[in-house]
Amino acid sequence: MNVTWSAEFSEEHLVADNAVRNSHAQSVPLVGHYCLSAAGYAMYLALESKFASYAALYLMVPGIYAASPVAAAWMANNSEPHYRRATSIALGFVASNTTTILNLSFNIISIALVIVSYFLLSWMNKRKQRQRAALIAPYANEKEADGGVNAWIELGDRHPDFRYIL
Question: Are 31 and 18 in contact (CB under 8 A)?
Answer without folding.
Answer: no
